[in-house]
Automatic annotation (TrEMBL):
Top-level taxon of origin: Bacteria
Keyword field: DNA integration, DNA recombination, DNA-binding
Organism of origin: Promicromonospora kroppenstedtii
A Pfam family per the record: Phage_integrase
Signal peptide: none
Keyword DNA-binding: yes
Coiled coil: none
Name of this protein: Tyrosine-type recombinase/integrase
Length: 357
């Protein structure tokens, strides 16, 4: 990607402007707006670098037609990258809308391109079975308290992290981004407020010969606007959070509840590895996102989908139902009705044919 800073001058985009220049100008505008989250910038940059610039960068703005757009998006989709194709379409829609605004083209060609196919949802929604939860909680505590190697015990806070996710349904990135200021554990209804998430973003190389690196940071906003929410805490989560705070670890400038030993954000990938290691030999296989589905399925069955969606921070109930609520696949008990198919008609009843409606 070309280096276009925040203070870069506005570039006149015309019909003959190369798309690489148009991409740069769009990128500059987005930076000036300051509304995109760090993770979104990182994701957009990856899509531009991997797909949009190689395919369209050398074309002139006027040469980007619906046919060209269709060819690009179809090629990405054929690789099974349906979400990436949808994202590329979103970026390109914004870039070409900017070109319309500059008068480089009269209409946005992306709007006339064929729609990108949505990726299929998971075949089966994974949840943690209720009889597995005691095994899970015991295993992670035993793993945390295992004998130290070389006399040095590495505090991972895995039991507390597991309980926090299990009892709230928050994402692992949201959990690891929790700050002390986000907790209210002393009220009649203890709460935590999701105000951010942990993301890994690209960091520019110090010199031309070095490779760019990726750094784990706390992003001061969660995945979406609806993800910013306050949830009430069951007693076992309050206990877990108090345990974490009582360890007195250095939470860094953000005062993180679950920091690394260096006072930086803890790695979600490392937590996943530790969970896998802790559960080895138990017969239980759990991934952090399974906790969200477990919470959603329980709330949906015991309360309603609206409550489940609000707890998870979804903007619509459809997302909760499609991706998070485990279907029981058990039909309702209709034995009495179906028995009417072979029951003798009641001579005193005017209805002599159950199919006669």
């Amino acid at each position: 990607m070309s280096n276009v800073g925040l203070a870069g001058s506005v570039v006149a985009v015309t019909a003959d402007t190369r798309m690489n220049v148009a991409f740069d100008e769009w990128w500059r505008e987005r930076q000036l707006e300051g509304e995109l989250a760090l993770q979104s910038f990182d994701t957009y940059a990856s899509n531009l670098r991997t797909h949009l610039r190689p395919a369209l960068g050398n074309l002139r703005v006027r040469e980007v037609t619906p046919v060209v757009v269709n060819r690009l998006l179809a090629g990405i989709s054929l690789q099974g990258k349906h979400d990436v194709a949808r994202q590329a379409r979103n970026i390109l829609t914004q870039v070409m809308s900017m070109c319309v605004r500059y008068g480089a083209v009269s209409v946005n060609p992306v709007r006339d391109a064929a729609p990108t196919r949505k990726s299929r949802g998971p075949k089966e929604i994974r949840t943690v079975e209720l009889d597995q939860i005691p095994i899970l909680r015991k295993a992670v505590r035993e793993w945390e308290n295992r004998p130290a190697k070389r006399g040095v015990r590495n505090i991972t806070m895995l039991p507390q992290i597991v309980d926090a996710m299990l009892g709230t349904g928050i994402r692992i990135g949201e959990c690891l981004a929790l700050r002390e200021a986000d907790l209210d554990l002393d009220g009649d209804a203890p709460t935590l407020t999701v105000q951010g998430t942990v993301v890994r973003v690209a960091v520019k190389a110090a010199s031309e010969g070095e490779k760019a690196t990726r750094q784990l940071v706390r992003q001061a906003k969660p995945k979406s606007d609806s993800s910013r929410r306050t949830v009430t805490l069951p007693p076992f989560v309050v206990d877990a959070l108090r345990e974490a705070l009582a360890l007195g670890l250095d939470g860094g400038p953000d005062h993180l509840v679950f920091p690394s030993t260096e006072g930086t954000p803890r790695s979600p990938g490392r937590v996943r590895e530790q969970m896998k290691e802790a559960l080895e030999g138990t017969g239980v296989t759990v991934r952090p996102h399974d906790f969200r589905r477990t919470v959603a399925s329980l709330l949906d069955s015991q309360l309603d989908t609206k409550t489940a969606a609000a707890q998870l921070g979804h903007s619509t109930e459809a997302t909760t139902l499609r991706h998070y609520v485990k279907q029981t696949h058990v039909a309702p008990d209709v034995r009495v009705v179906l028995d009417m198919l072979v029951s003798e008609p009641d001579s005193d009843s005017p209805e002599t044919n159950v199919m006669g409606k």
